[in-house]
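RECORD TYPE: inverse folding
INPUT: structure tokens
STRUCTURE:
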């Protein structure tokens, strides 16, 4: 089972594309679809950050101009996939999040309309959605 948020979700679906045998269930939290987007110069937010700003700069080109194979290979993901959308408060285009779910054969989308940081803004609904997904068709191995 693999879960990824935002850029971490991109890493998660790339892993699921490259190594389908290693990912049986995939959860993508407010992850952008790999479409080219307008390139802008990012501005560092003021104050202390809860993320690595240098990493944002390092991956910016890949996010702005993703490899076209990223999109093409979404249809090859074999993992059962839950895509969580943050709704209209998110900076991630929600039509792209929905399209991401449609392009993954076993994908489905659930919207929790609290913005990009679903796990932080709505931890209980986030946990409920993820837990319900992970418990579907769960058959524990019984020890003799």
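DESIGNED SEQUENCE:
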């Amino acid at each position: 089972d693999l879960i990824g948020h935002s850029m971490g979700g991109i890493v998660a679906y790339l892993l699921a594309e490259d190594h389908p045998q290693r990912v049986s269930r995939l959860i993508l939290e407010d992850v952008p679809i790999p479409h080219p987007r307008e390139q802008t110069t990012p501005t560092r937010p003021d104050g202390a950050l809860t993320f690595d700003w240098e990493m944002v700069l390092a991956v910016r080109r890949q996010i702005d101009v993703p490899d076209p194979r990223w999109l093409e290979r979404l249809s090859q993901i074999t993992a059962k996939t839950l895509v969580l959308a943050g709704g209209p408060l998110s900076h991630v285009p929600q039509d792209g999040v929905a399209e991401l779910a449609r392009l993954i054969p076993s994908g489905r989308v659930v919207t929790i309309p609290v913005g990009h940081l679903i796990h932080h803004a709505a931890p209980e609904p986030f946990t409920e959605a993820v837990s319900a997904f992970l418990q579907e068709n769960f058959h524990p191995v019984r020890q003799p």
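NOTES: Residues 4 and 56 are 16 Å apart (CA to CA).
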